[in-house]
Specification:
The chain is α+β, with helices and mostly antiparallel strands and 72 residues long. The protein is built from two helices and four strands.
């Protein structure tokens, strides 16, 4: 199953994060405005619309096999 993953080194923590605003599943979580966002895999549907929304290219596509472990 495909999922989105935010690479913290590439994320610039934009105050108006388009990824967070455009996620229809509300899978992008930010603890507070100063914290970098992360993806809640339980909410993420794998549509990867966020990948095109990010101005900084910080979204990476990862594949999660049926066994539940991430394949990097």
């Amino acid at each position: 199953m495909k999922r989105a993953l935010i690479q913290p080194a590439k994320c610039r923590n934009c105050p108006d994060c388009l990824v967070e605003l455009n996620c229809s599943m509300k899978a992008i979580i930010r603890e507070d405005r100063a914290a970098k966002p992360w993806v809640d895999f339980y909410r993420c549907s794998g549509c990867l619309k966020c990948k095109t929304s990010c101005r900084n290219g910080s979204i990476e596509e990862v594949t999660q096999p049926c066994g539940g472990r991430m394949a990097w």
